[in-house]
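Chain A, query sequence.
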Amino acid sequence: MIVEDEVIVAMDVQQRLERLGYNVVAHATSGEEAITLAMREMPDLILMDIKIQGEMDGIDAAARIRATHDIPIIYVTAFSGDDTIIARADGTIWVFNQTLRRQGTALFN
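Chain A, predicted structure.
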């Protein structure tokens, strides 16, 4: 499942995943929608942007999902400027951001 409010970015990620043989079961653009879709679809993995539409950000949505379901969540974000936000994401599996891409490591080629 992809949680990304920029539709073009979400479509690009989905196409890349599908070319690699993965099935994307849902796409959410807000935290509220992400929670609803995660409960209904029960994905094997969620790729979650931190800065998304709606009243809650990706970190809050991830916390709500993880409180009731053991679904792994990977943050995929271009946001890396505020250590406070990154610290809020602590306790998750990975945080990918554009800094990694600049260092030569990319989630997707």
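The first helix runs from residue 7 to 19. The radius of gyration is 13 Å.
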